[in-house]
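HUMAN: You are asked to prepare a plain-text protein record giving the amino acid sequence and the backbone structure tokens, both parts labelled.

ASSISTANT:
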Amino acid sequence: MGARLLRYSIPHTSMRTTDPSQHRSQAGLLPEWTTRLAVATNPEQIVQLAKRFVESHDEIERARLPSHCLPPPMQTPQDVCSYAFRLTQEQLKFEGTLGAAVLLDRMALFFSLASSRIAQLAHIARIRV
């Protein structure tokens, strides 16, 4: 018996991304952001970093996210943690375009790391008391 060769076709349009020069958030800024999170010394600094991270993505880019995943106002550490949870939930069931998936992944990663850092800082604060 001969082996059967199966042919799969991947449409080029599903694999194309937009011009990387137009979307700097996809160009590897995450190490810079993770460093900023690591050196933050209190949860309020994390909230400010989260605001700046969101602002580093232009409005057109943010519009690629599902509407229920658009960034809410970030006022408290709980806002950051809640948004991390929402993004992670969406990430698990997301079936959109590649470009939107890349953005969703980056946002979910940043906010998950931010949420984790908030928990670390809260723990450190409790230990010091």
